[in-house]
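I would like you to sit down with the pair of lines that follows and say whether tokens and residues agree.
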Amino acid sequence: MSIFASQTQSEPIPIPFDPPHTVIVRKLTGLECDAAREAHATGVAAGGSRLWATKFRRILEGSLSDKREVEQAIADPLTGYDRYALVRAGLVAWTYPQSIKPIPAQPASNGKPAVEPYDAIGDLDDEAVDFIATEVLRITKPALFYTAREDVERAQKERPAAAPVA
């Protein structure tokens, strides 16, 4: 992995509910992570994007509603991020014939038929959006997927030590 998002992308990831298709995702830039948090914050309530994911988890922790649902939301790595912002920024390629980039409408001209607008990402079902967004976040913020203190400690040991400054 590199500190430069453009230099970090996944190998093909099989889509478990639609074999043999795969996706390739990349690490998001800091600005793209901020945009995904901002999109979520705007969709839920007013707030700053930089700390929105943390603030939203704290709001949920203080909630007196169904405790089990609150705990699931807090544990969900996607909490605090807009799924579509993650997918649009992080999806590099897939094995479907549809274009990842939206196709704008074009009027008929010179005997060519009109082209209807089409947005394949906007056409994805909920399960697919969750899956791809999760994989983008997994490559971007792997610590969100640690489930135990042992995972955190192992990751810290695997992290290379800082080089001494001369």
About this structure: Residues 161-166 have pLDDT under 50 and may be disordered. Residues 5-158 form one domain.
